[in-house]
Amino acid sequence: MDRGSNMSRARQFEAAEDVPASPSADATIGDLITERLSRRNLSAGLLAVAAIAAAAPLRVLLGSPSVQAQEQRTTPSFDFEEVAAGVDDTHHVAEGYDADVLIRWGDRVLADAPAFDPYRQTPAAQARQFGYNNDFLGFIPHDGSSEHGLLVVNHEYTNEELMFPGAGRQDTTRFAMMTGALAGIEMMAHGGSVIEVRKSGGTWSVVTRSRYNRRITAETDMRISGPAAGHALMRTKADPTGAWVRGMLNNCSGGITPWGTWLTCEENFNGYFWGKADGLPGETALKRYGVPGNWMNWGQYHDRFNLAKEPQEPNRFGWIVEIDPFDPASVPVKRTALGRFKHEGAGNVVNKDGRFVVYSGDDQRFDYVYKFVTAGLVDRTDRAGNRDLLDHGTLHAARFDADGSGEWLPLVHGEGKLTAAAGFSDQGHVLIHARLAADALGATRMDRPEDIDVDPRTGKVYVMLTNNAARTPVQVDAANPRADNRFGHIIEIMPDGGDHAATKFRWEILLRCGDPLEAAVGATFNPATTKSGWFGMPDNALVDADGRLWIATDGNSQRATGRADGVWALETEGAARGTSKHFYRCPIGAELCGPAMTPDMTTLFVAVQHPGEGQGPKGPSTFEAPSTRWPDFLPDMPPRPSIVAITRRGGGRIG
Ligand code: FEO
Ligand code: CA
Ligand code: CA
User: Fold this and answer.
1) How far apart are CA 548 and CA 490, in angstroms?
2) b/e per residue, 462-490, with b = 16+ CB within 10 A?
3) Residue 540: phi, psi to the nearest 5?
4) Atom of ligand 1 nearest to the CA of 363
C-alpha cells in the first residue's frame, strides 16, 4: 500500500499537535498519580488525587484495585492489549486483532451498481451504491449464525467538502459550488443500506448478488403510522392525507427488534429545512426543534424542504422508522407513537411481562431521555404478529431526582398538563410536539442524550450523555453534575423491580468522562485505567452477550483531547467498575459509530464515519486536500466512510 506523502503529513501533524507517546501497557492513572507525587509535582498531582478521591467509588479507594478486582469482579474482564491513544491518518486496533474494511462509501450494494468514480458521481449511481457517513449498524444473523447474516446500516449525513471536487473551496460562500445534481447525489447518499454479509476463510465480504441488498434514501416512499398519522399537522400540499412521506433524514443510531426489524432514528432533521420560521404558523414549535437549520440547501431545488412552501413538512421527520430488512419490497414505516424529537437511537428490551420497551435519547443540549412501552406483548411465535406492535403504547420522559430516584412521566393527552387548554389538541399533537409536552411535564434537561443500551441480564440501562459545554454552574443538577461539561458522562438506570414498564427507577452516575489527570475536569475513571484508557464524548454503545459495555466516541479529535475517536471497553461491575481500555482507534477526523457484534462475540463491526472531516494540517480538509485518504490511500481518492470488521487473529472472542 503506497501511502506516500500522506504518511509524512500525518507525522508532521502528530508532531505539531504534541500527541503523547504511547504509554506503557502497565502504567495506570493510579500509577501516574503516584509517580507525579513521588516527583513532588504537587500542584498537578494533589489536585488530581483530590478530584479522583472525591468522585471514585469508595470501594476502589479502600485497597489495591488489582487485588480487589480479582475478588469482586462479576463480569469477565477485558484481556486485550490496549491500543495507544493518539491521532494519525489511519486506524489502529488492539494487538492480535485484524481490522478489515468490509464496505466503503460508493461500493456496490445492488449488483448492477456502477463502479465508484468520485469524479463522475450521479444520483442514479449513488442510489445503488453504499451511502455516506455510516452510523448505526445492526447485525441480524441468518438462523443464529455468527458467520452469515444481514447488516443494516444508517447513512446519517453528507460532507460535500469531502465528497465533491471543488465543493470545499474557501474563496466562495458555503453553497456557491452546490447544484441541484449534487443535492440529488447527497439525497441518495442519505438513508440506509441493507447488505447480506458472509464470513468465509476468516474474512467477511458482502454478498453482492443477494436478494436482500437494498438502498433506502431521502427519496424512498414511507408510510406514517400510529396516533399522528393523518393528523392535520402532518398534511402538506404534496400529501394531503398526512400518511405518506418521501424519505428519512439524518438517521443516526437505531436498534434491532427481537422480530428482526430495523429501527432507524431520524436525528438532526431540522438541518435540512430551508428558509425562516419567523411569522409562520407553528413558529414556536418550529423554533423549539431548531427548524429551519439551513445546513443543506436542498430547499432551493425541492419544495418540500422549503419552509415557505411546505411549513408542515418538518413535522414528518424526527421519527423512529421501522424497516423489515428481509423484504426488500417492504415500505418503511414511521412509528409516531414513539414521539418526534432528535432521536439518537432505539435501545430496546423485551420486558419481563412481554411488553416491548424502547429507550431513546433526544440528542441536543438540555433535551430529554425517553422510553416507550408497548400496550401489547411481543409475539415470539409469529413474526407477523408484531407488525403493528409499535403503534400502540405510552411514551415517557425521564425526571432524575437528586436523591437517586427518578420517574418516567407519561406523555398522554388529557393527563396532567397535556390538555387542550394547554394547547395540545389530541395525542397526535402531543407526539408531534413531544419536546413541548416533555417541557410541560418537567422532565430533566440533560447533557445531550445519545445511545441508551440495556443489559438484558441485569436490567441495567446505560445512558450516554456526550457533552454540554453550555451548562452553567447554576444549571448543574444531580444527574448533570458538571458545568461546562465538555467530556460527557454515563448514567446507569435501575428500573424498579427490574421492570422496564415501571414508572419509578433508581439511577447513579457510572462515569464522568475526560482526562483523569486534569483535576479541573473531575473525571472518575477507576485508577486502574491507563493513560490511553480514558475517553471523552461517549456516543454509541454496545452491551455484548456477556453484559460487557463497549463505548464508541464522537468529538475527541476535534476538541482538546489530542486523541482520535474510537472504541473503549468499560468495566461496569465489581472493584474494576469504571476501568476503561482502548480497543480501536479511528483515523483523523472520524467518529466511531454503530458497534455491533455477532452472537458468538467473534466479530465486532464498527462504522467509521466522516474520516478526514474538519481541520487538516494545512487548513480545512477538502476533497482535493483531505487530512487523510483512508481507507484507500490512493492519490485521487477522497477519504471514504466505511464499515470495518474486527476479528481476533487465529479466531476467538473479541476482548
Ligand atoms: Fe448523530 Fe447524536 O449523533
Ligand atoms: Ca451518534
Ligand atoms: Ca455523533
Assistant:
1) 15
2) bbbbbbbeebeeeeeeebbebeebbbbbb
3) -95, 160
4) 2
| Mean confidence (pLDDT) of the chain | 90
Position 357 scores a pLDDT of 98
Distance CA 292, CA 217 (A): 21
Rounded to 5°, the CA angle 375-226-298 comes to: 140
Task: Kindly report the number of other CB atoms within 10 A of residue 365's CB atom.
Answer: 15
Distance from the Cα of residue 603 to its chain's centroid: 19
Residue 134 φ/ψ, nearest 5 degrees: -60, 130
Average pLDDT over residues 410-424: 97
Pairwise CA distance, residues 75 & 455, whole Å: 12
First to last CA, the chain: 28
Q: Quick check: 484 and 495 in contact, CB under 8 A?
A: no
| Residue whose C-alpha cell reads 479541573 in the numeric block | 520
CB-based pocket (< 6 A), ligand 1:
156, 252, 267, 344, 363, 450, 539
CA 539 – ligand 3 centroid, Å: 6
| Average pLDDT estimate for 160-171 | 93
Q: How far is the CA of 67 from the centre of ligand 2 (A)?
A: 36
Atom of ligand 1 nearest to the CA of 540: 3
Angle between helices 42-55 and 29-38 (to 10 degrees): 140
Cα-based angle 82, 87, 93 (whole degrees, multiple of 5):
35
The answer to whether the beta carbons of residues 13 and 644 sit under 8 Å apart is: no
Rounded Cα distance, 465 and 327, in Å? 35
Distance 143 CA to ligand 3 centre (A): 32
**What pTM does this model have?**
0.91
- CA atoms of 565 and 162, how far apart (whole Å): 19
Q: What are the cell numbers at 294?
A: 439551513
Q: In what order do the strands lie in the sheet with 580-585?
A: 92-93, 580-585, 566-570, 549-553, 538-543
Separation of 486 CA from ligand 1 center, angstroms?
Answer: 16
Closest ligand relative to 448 C-alpha = 1
Distance CA 298, CA 219 (A): 12
Burial of residue 137 (CB within 10 Å: 0-12, 13-18, 19+) is buried
Nearest atom, ligand 1, residue 466 CA: 2
> How are beta strands 549-553 and 393-400 bridged, if at all?
unpaired
The amino acid sitting at 411 is L
- Is residue 631 reached through a cis peptide bond, with omega within 30 degrees of 0 on the bond before it? yes
Ligand 1 atom closest to the Cα of residue 253 is 1
Q: Are 34 and 91 in contact (CB under 8 A)?
A: no
- Say what the pLDDT of residue 172 is: 84
Strand residue runs (E) in 314-404:
320-323, 333-335, 347-350, 355-361, 365-367, 369-377, 393-400
Residue 51 has pLDDT above 50, yes or no: no
Phi, psi of 398 (to 5 degrees): -95, 135
Residue 488 contacts residue 513 (beta carbons within 8 Å): yes
- Which region among 13-22, 138-147, 450-459 has the lowest average model confidence (pLDDT)? 13-22
Assess whether the previous peptide bond of 292 is cis (omega < 30° from 0): yes
Those residues whose C-beta lies under 8 Å from the C-beta of residue 622, and which sit 6 or more positions away, are: 161, 162, 167, 168, 169
- pLDDT-derived band at 37 (thresholds 50, 70, 90) equals low
Residue-wise pLDDT for 598-614, tens only, equals 999 999 999 999 999 99
Name the CA radius of gyration of the chain, rounded.
24
Residues 523-582 have pLDDT tens digits of: 999 999 999 999 999 999 999 998 899 999 999 875 567 899 999 999 999 999 999 999
CA distance 533 to 30: 12
Question: DSSP of 245-292, one letter per residue?
Answer: EE----EEEEEE-TTS-EEEEE--GGGG-BS--TTSTTHHHHHHTT--
